UniProtKB/TrEMBL annotation:
<dbReference type="InterPro" id="IPR036291">
    <property type="entry name" value="NAD(P)-bd_dom_sf"/>
</dbReference>
<feature type="domain" description="Enoyl reductase (ER)">
    <location>
        <begin position="10"/>
        <end position="343"/>
    </location>
</feature>
<dbReference type="Pfam" id="PF00107">
    <property type="entry name" value="ADH_zinc_N"/>
</dbReference>
<comment type="similarity">
    <text>Belongs to the zinc-containing alcohol dehydrogenase family.</text>
</comment>
<keyword id="KW-0560">Oxidoreductase</keyword>
<dbReference type="GO" id="GO:0016491">
    <property type="term" value="F:oxidoreductase activity"/>
</dbReference>
<dbReference type="InterPro" id="IPR013154">
    <property type="entry name" value="ADH-like_N"/>
</dbReference>
<dbReference type="GO" id="GO:0008270">
    <property type="term" value="F:zinc ion binding"/>
</dbReference>
<dbReference type="InterPro" id="IPR002328">
    <property type="entry name" value="ADH_Zn_CS"/>
</dbReference>
<dbReference type="Pfam" id="PF08240">
    <property type="entry name" value="ADH_N"/>
</dbReference>
<dbReference type="InterPro" id="IPR013149">
    <property type="entry name" value="ADH-like_C"/>
</dbReference>
<dbReference type="InterPro" id="IPR011032">
    <property type="entry name" value="GroES-like_sf"/>
</dbReference>
<dbReference type="InterPro" id="IPR020843">
    <property type="entry name" value="ER"/>
</dbReference>
<protein>
    <submittedName>
        <fullName>Zinc-dependent alcohol dehydrogenase family protein</fullName>
    </submittedName>
</protein>
<keyword id="KW-0862">Zinc</keyword>
<keyword id="KW-0479">Metal-binding</keyword>
Amino acid sequence: MKALVFEGPGRTSWRDAPDPEVKDAADAIVRGDTVTICGTDLHIIKGDVPEVTPGRILGHEAVGEVMEVGAEVRTVRPGDRVLISCISPCGRCRFCRGNRYGQCQGGGGWVLGHLIDGTQAEYVRVPFADLSLHPLTSAVDGADAVLLADILPTAYEVGVVNGQVKPGDTVVIVGAGPIGLATVATARLCTPERIIAVDLAESRLTAARAMGADATVLSTEDPERLVADLTDGLGADVAIEAVGLPETFDLCTRMVRPGGRVANIGVHGKPATLHLEDLWIKDVTITTGLVDTFSTPLLLRMTAAGKIPLTSLVTHRFELDQMEEAYDVFSRAADTGAMKVVLGGTPHDTVLPAN
């Protein structure tokens, strides 16, 4: 098969790779019909995630068709159309029993495109298939469904739930890229009084308004002043960091009110300063997190009901064999205007069983 392979920091290639096989009775082999690229993949290529070793197939988000299942798989079967979650929970360990799937200690968690080969390929082996795969009806568009593999549950769980967004809150979201826009969309489900989006690019702020942001401000135009003006000087109830830079994290800590919450979503590749000399007296709660995907079934239902706008998040479409071109467009988002890029390959006519 063909796959996007990490060759070391700064280097990838779309090349031949061995077809995946069922290794465990809980595995499934899925043909990837629709895949996407995550900002975390860019961090991996930069070398920010040293656990990813050369030779690894990247990617952790896809929609596809089940081709083969192990003997213990009960909830899906060959021919089923499924969403592949970015998190693969074993379902048995202490953390999985508490819905903390991202911290799985039983061989799962975030493994696809990280510790095992991922989804940016013609086929992928999915471990713990009963909990890692979500059946989809034919009515759900693949480009919409693939966004529920990672960015929608990440935005909702790590941003909205961890930030305890409540009715009447003022929420400021720093970063209006794909994850920030997904946070705007899912925060609306909690009926805050206002959502303020902050970004460097006017085009992304326009997208934030389309997703439901009530106010937007360029990061160069004193967002702290705007937040203060809109809250009678108190600050935001919830400040959500959706970039992954020391400067944006620090901005969130300056805009949050006493007793407020800072929810960090962004993937940080270098240390950020925590100004406890200012924060210790403000009763501020700071949360971090890796997505657990416990909310995926809920978000699938809300998407099917039309409660979460997704179509505007997808800005570019490619065929699967245009993976390198798609990465180039996605990595130069400031120039290309890319939000989410979706790749859909032509399905194969035949599939040979691994055995």
